[in-house]
Amino acid sequence: ARMANKEDKCTGRFWEGRFKSQALLDDAAVLACMAYVDLNPIRAKMAKIPETSDFTSIQRRIKAAFNGEQPKSLLPFVGNERKNMPKGLMFSAQDYLQLVDDTGRIIRDDKRGAISQTSQQILDRLNIPQENWLKLTTDFGRLFKGAVGTLQELDVYCEHLEKKRRQGAANCHRWLDSA
């Protein structure tokens, strides 16, 4: 612990300040954060494609998709319908895999890529312009320090916690409230 504190130039308990949690308040925030995390190995040049990015949920989802399954330990994709639906994301696993693949091709310097029509439809349903999506999936950690979602979801969240100040409201509005 002392050695890690020395390397990180910090003091205090070992885990103190090293890991933070953020409330993801809607599907757009969840998908943007998932894509950001799933694409970290690509941005860091530790993997060239999502299938080879070890220890990521995208790799587990791809392996499961080959068997026509979804990983049991991950939040499932339940499709596009919202009625009589179990908890899960309102997109199909195939849609998410396509969106991450398209995004990964764009952020790689050595790949030419573009958001496909299928992925654009997902972004349209989320009401996120393509430029905002690319910013969210490359800078999520820098853009948001607290709860993430639309201003409406952020208001509900802050009211529930009896918070007077909406930390990060400007970035939530700029990047997620694009209507």
Structure characterization notes:
25% of the residues are buried. 50% of the residues lie in helices and 0% in strands. The protein has nine helices and no strands. By secondary structure, it is mainly alpha-helical. It has helices spanning 2-8, 27-38, 40-43, 57-66, 93-107, 117-126, 130-143, 151-160, 169-176. GO terms for molecular function: DNA binding; transposase activity.
Query: Which value, in Å, is the CA radius of gyration?
Result: 18 Å
Question: Beta-sheet strand percentage?
Answer: under 5%
Order of helices and strands: HHHHHHHHH
- Calculate the mean pLDDT score and round it: 83
Alpha-carbon distance between the two ends = 47 Å
| Contiguous helical run count | 9
- CA-based shape: globular
Structural class assignment: mainly alpha
Major sheet: none
Low-confidence runs: none
Q: Considering DSSP H and I runs of 4 or more, what fraction of the residues is helical? A: 40-55%
How many runs of DSSP E, i.e. beta strands? Answer: 0
Protein name: Transposase
GO molecular function, one term: transposase activity
Organism: Shewanella hanedai (Alteromonas hanedai)
InterPro entries: Transposase_17_sf
